[in-house]
User: Which sequence fits this backbone?
């Protein structure tokens, strides 16, 4: 087509915001602060039987980053990136650009206004035009190697180092390491993917993709813990209120990570076929929970406090001492668990489903997770059915105010 | 735990149906017939700004299988299976079992009542307990090799054979062939995965997994064509009413496939990074559509009829003759397109996103697709940005009445 045709025939460009307005999608949901209020599984739906998703807009700004204490969404797109530059100024600029992009993405806007000039690539890849934000949250973290590469030696912290090798780990090189993580969560898979894609695109001169994984959760009525692919509820003792998050999650020492947290990710392959051939008694003994209700043995409510010393009327312990729940609880520390299921087609070696858990958790000190994983690593009956194949630790910055940029306290 | 403890401590088992009733989830949505009524993109949401998903229950029974004319869902789990038995009676029984399972799955029930005996594996894998059906549909099809393997020579049809090699095809062995396909679609990824997992599990003595792919769609307000990962709308000329489906989709000769259709699947890798470096003019010329509105060149409505002979005021053709829309339309046949996006982490060769389109379409005669694909194959500008890596053709049986089983007319 000639340029002349171009002028005549192309639609007048409208901004995505205008587009949304046209569709009556803006302003219906109030902005929700990302300041850590509310339990992970708060009742976020207004309907009784119908599930209402996506319309609320979450702010990128606040005391803490979003996507940590935010009630969990249906989808995640998690990306680990490698730095290909050691120029601090360039990287700083990338985080400034990412701040600008993230604010817009979380509002459901284009990452940049559409250009009148058709002879350049669109600034936004465009696959979310016309959609609401679907409760999109974007969470950034950096790894210990990031500090090394940028020679930020004075920002190092004793506790912030690569995770140890845990008993039975079978970590693959392709699923470990990396310098930066971006966690995009939303109630729509395309919205989450679009966010990471556009952020990566903006930084592509400075970064490459190390590994990524899409994940999903069945949110249901939003009041129960979503089931994993073994059909069980897990992580029912998550922080439930601001005070819990303060105690368990938010880093509170007075340095660049203040109001941030440590994100730990584990890619856990679940051997579904083996599990599916295991009898119900054994399955329940493995978790130490009833499958149907999700309650720990001896309780009826999934959210009941787990008491590892509890004995039945016959004087015997209620929880098997090699059960997942017993060993996790025995570590006597808490974490905020925000895990998603994944399914990646067929495992080429086994010919079975390649599926599992993209385990993500947040804690103010890595030792919280390390203590739990060490307790599980040797004895957990669940190890017969799972394999940890990926790992990562990232320091997620504190939240920022408008006018600041994500990571600012690290760079300045 | 001892059996004695078992009796004392395990929750009284309740059926999933009871569970749903308890949660107030049953009966809220009326059953929707699968008989082909309604357009693919019917307005399926009752809220204005909020999107309400999943609550409607779709019947497995009807004149046609569900998941073909059903308004498209947010998620698909598509599986291609290989037969490992040539015993017709065994396979027939598997389809009977699958019919029983599918009816229950689409109602949001367990595939079989939970057993009192804890010493056997649960019959249902359980990861959807407590969820509503999320508009689950399950669609079964068989390939030409299925007829060969079961020596059903008298059921063969001249038009039902493996697809030809199309220009520029780069089909991988792992993504072609197979004897049976199962398409599970739902507004929840875990519900779709659960359906295929439990069906495969039931038949595991007779079948193995060949390839599977999960896919997603941004449904938005349900009135617009969902955008693909290039940010474009495609397939806007889908059948819109019963008459269209009758003309385009439903097989109407008087044999075992009556009221069924041919499903064609193409796994299409999309080279996102290349596309993202292409200017907007070139992107729009490639599709022959405006990116923002989705309308074909020269029109303002995405659903406008495409007129390949239309000329602008300057007398020049409006649609580039190598554009996707021009060439698809030039073939002068219609299909029912029901495609989903996919993202599978990183392509290990390129280090870029492994993402694309799980293209699925339905037609009463394979030549409809073949004619379009031949028109596209040589000249479509879009070929610079995509690669077809997987392929399949399956005959999807007609619908059944309660008491019948899926595929019955083929076997008897």
Assistant:
């Amino acid at each position: 087509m000639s340029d002349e045709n171009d002028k005549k025939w192309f639609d007048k460009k409208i901004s995505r915001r205008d587009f949304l307005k046209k569709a009556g999608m803006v302003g219906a949901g109030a902005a929700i602060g990302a300041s850590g209020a509310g339990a992970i599984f708060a009742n976020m739906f207004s309907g009784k039987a119908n599930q209402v998703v996506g319309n609320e807009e979450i702010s990128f700004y606040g005391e803490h980053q979003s996507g940590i204490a935010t009630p969990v969404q249906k989808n995640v797109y998690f990306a680990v990136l490698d730095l290909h530059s050691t120029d601090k100024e360039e990287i700083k600029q990338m985080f400034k650009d990412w701040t600008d992009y993230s604010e817009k993405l979380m509002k459901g806007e284009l990452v940049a206004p559409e250009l009148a000039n058709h002879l350049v690539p669109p600034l936004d890849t465009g696959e979310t035009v016309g959609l609401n934000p679907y409760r999109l949250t974007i969470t950034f973290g950096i790894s210990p190697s990031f500090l090394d590469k940028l020679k930020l030696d004075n920002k190092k912290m004793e506790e912030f180092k690569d995770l140890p090798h845990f008993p039975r780990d079978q970590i693959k090189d392709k699923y470990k390491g990396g310098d930066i993580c971006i966690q995009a969560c939303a109630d729509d898979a395309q919205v989450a993917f679009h966010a990471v894609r556009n952020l990566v695109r903006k930084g592509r001169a400075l970064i490459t993709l190390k590994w990524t994984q899409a994940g999903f959760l069945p949110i249901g009525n939003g009041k129960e813990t979503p089931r994993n692919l073994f059909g069980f509820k897990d992580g029912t003792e998550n922080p439930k209120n601001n005070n819990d998050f303060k105690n368990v999650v938010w880093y509170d020492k007075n340095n660049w990570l203040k109001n941030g947290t440590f994100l730990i990710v584990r890619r856990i392959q679940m051997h579904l076929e083996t599990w599916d051939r295991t009898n119900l008694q054994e399955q329940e003994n493995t978790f130490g929970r009833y499958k149907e209700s999700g309650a720990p043995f001896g309780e009826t409510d999934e959210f009941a406090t787990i008491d590892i010393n509890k004995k039945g009327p016959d004087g015997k312990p209620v929880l098997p001492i090699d059960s997942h729940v017993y060993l996790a609880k025995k570590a006597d520390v808490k974490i905020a668990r925000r895990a998603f299921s994944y399914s990646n087609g067929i495992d080429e070696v086994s010919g079975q489903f390649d599926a599992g858990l993209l385990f993500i958790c947040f804690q103010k000190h890595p030792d919280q997770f390390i203590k739990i994983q060490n307790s599980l690593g040797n004895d957990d009956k669940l190890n017969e059915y799972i394999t940890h194949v990926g790992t990562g630790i990232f320091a997620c910055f504190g939240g920022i105010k408008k006018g600041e940029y994500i990571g600012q306290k690290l760079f300045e």
About this structure: Chain B has one domain: 52-411. Chain B touches chain A through 110 residues (CB under 8 Å). Residues 52-411 of chain B form one domain.
